[in-house]
Amino acid sequence: MEEKAKILLVDDERLYLDILVELLKPDYKLYIAKSAEQAYNRIKENLPDLILMDIQMPDASGYDACERIKANPSWRHIPLIFLTANTDSASETLAFQTGAVDFIYKPIVADTLRVRVSHQINLLRLNKKLTELHDTAVQLNDKRDQAFKGSRDALIFMLVHQYLPATSGEKVIFCKQFQCLLRLLVEQLSLNANYCDILDETTIFDLVCVALVSKMADPIDHTVSNDVTLDQFNASVQTQQLELLLQQAKHFAGVSRFMAMAEEIIRHSHESWDGTGLPLGLQTEQIPLTCRIVKLANAYQSCFANSSMAIDLRHQQALEFLQTESGRSLDPKLVDAFFQIQDDFLKEAKTFDNQ
Q1: Residue 12 CB burial class (10 angstroms; 0-12, 13-18, ≥19)
Q2: Which run of H or of E encompasses 129?
């Protein structure tokens, strides 16, 4: 059985309080106040579901009392119905302006009172159920996201351990630095109005995960090369390897937004800003943003990978390479964004080198 709703009756006239109690007591739990100040105290003691308030009171008008109640963040949700002998339109307008949801004329008509009170209580209960349904939906959505993230993490773990030899400790450090670079770059881009709608929190996480898997599964030791034919061959080999990885991943986890991003990055991260890349010769913003980001990260890492040099020298060499390739193979706006975070990246990269 549903618990009785609590109603606060506020009126300084005993006659009207007695009428209200007689008509409403069978269906509701009632509290009484004979002034605005008493009403505030009753609300503090026991939050009501509905307030019926007279407009004419000795210590404050109902309008003032209503405004004070609605100004309190903990009380403003409580629906308030005015009891009034005023039937002019100005009084009705003021009642709604101060925050009332309805008004009941005096002398009180029993059926009108019951219907209007019942209507507000039913609205209150409906709103409560909708809130509960919303909260349940949010919880289910969170559980679904956690389950999806768990399966995604399991997939990444499987693929990484399938393709990464146990002895490649140096490559683990290399990939951690690559992940750090990507994360900082994408977070920086997400602050830009041109990218913030695209790079939401989920997309950032997915992008970093996909790119990290592709980097760890990449069998090629990339370094800067002047041999275009060799570079194209390496890109072709990497794409073939990752296409195989992608097919295995789809078989394991099915089709999803995460897999769609993986497919996009695997197939188009060798495209170049000036249209000279592979496999389709896409140029400028024809190339998906995710692929342009990974392209830049790979370009930086191709210089940074030479572990025989001091880390500061490798970093400087990589920066010079990015400047050279800006507007050629790399998106110049992304290069500019990287230069804004390059100091932060170098600081984190050094921590990995010292591990």
Answers
A1: middle
A2: helix 110-163
In the chain, beta strands by DSSP E: 6-10, 29-33, 50-54, 80-84, 102-105
Omega within 30 of 0 (cis) for the link into 107: yes
Tokens 């019951």 found at: 114
Q: What is the 3-state secondary structure (H, E, C) of 145-176?
A: HHHHHHHHHHHHHHHHHHHCCCCCHHHHHHHH
Are 6-134 and 164-353 equal in CATH topology? no
Q: Give 166-176 pLDDT, tens digit per residue.
A: 434 555 666 67
Neighbours of 239 (CB within 10 A): 19
Residue ranges of the domains in the chain? 6-134, 164-353
Name residue, tokens 């030791």. 221
Strand, helix or coil for residue 82: strand
Q: Which of 94-98, 118-122, 126-130, 309-313 has the lowest mean pLDDT?
A: 126-130
Going from the C-alpha of 143 to that of each of 27, 85, 132, 136, 339, the distances in angstroms are: 40, 54, 16, 10, 38
- Across the range 85-107, mean pLDDT stands at 89
One-letter identity of residue 74: S
Pick the CATH number of 164-353 from 1.10.3730.10, 1.20.1250.40, 1.10.3210.10, 3.30.565.10: 1.10.3210.10
State the CATH class of domain 6-134.
Answer: alpha beta
Give me the mean pLDDT over the 11-26 stretch: 93
